[in-house]
Amino acid sequence: MKTRIGILGLGGVGGYFGGLLTKEYATSDTIDIVFIARGETLKVVSEFGLKIRTDEGEMTVFPNIVSDNPEIIGKLEYLICATKTYDIETSFESYRKCITSNTIILPLCNGVDASERISKLFPENSVLQGCVYIVSMIVAPGIIKKIGPYEKLFFGSKSNADSKITALQSFFEKAKIESYLVENIEETVWEKFIFISALASATSYLNQNIGQILSNPESKQVYVSLLNEIALVASVKGLKMPENIVEQTILKLEKSPQEATSSMHRDFLAHHKTEVVSLTEFVVKEGIKYDVSTPIYQMILRKLLE
Fold first, then answer.
1. What distance in Å separates the CA atoms of residue 267 and residue 276, rounded to the nearest whole number?
2. Which end of the chain offers a freer environment for a tag, N or C, measured as fewer CB atoms within 10 Å?
């Protein structure tokens, strides 16, 4: 019987890493890659495949299965969730029939509470924690664009990794995904969250891309203030962040494509629903919970919710 790996959410993250898995395993006798898609994306990928464009060129992949029907998707051994954070509960309820008590679930969502929320829905399951560093986005249904060379995937479990989790790492490695199975996954996820939360909040509030923020002293000060506030929240929560986390995060941003921006900023510009609750409001609420002052986050939240 084949191992079924489901990809829920074919955006910049799910589409890109799901595409690499499909490229490796589309003709495998032991692994099925299943794309869980709806609407126009389902129609396009079913007929024309999933296109991934990078700085080096373009490739098209055809998954073993692409469907929104739980009966066709079948029972999954692994489910990689890369939906928007506001879609987590509704998406998982739609495909509850595909998840058994043995399904390993790996969320690769923005924010830091995805695993906790999924565990409430599926308390018997092994729900991992994970995060990625990548600049990628949907340019049209069934077409993913990745900018720059940076692509790293980190995942792990608070409990000891079992054989199915280490097997997932081997699947990633064979598909040439730069992935790391790490022990201190909560700190790793929060380190990424510090990066993406401050960036999403700053780009959306200032309506500027990375290069514009870094080159404008006033804009950069807003960004640095956000970093200091969220880093203090993490510290008071008891998370062991690098002492120079703010400087490290600024360096990561300086190495990022300067013309890029955050997915939340792109959603604001397109008048789409945004992840402001998970990326901005969450920090404000954690600040209140742990008695940490977050005036810049609060100011930006008020503006973004107008």
1. 10
2. C
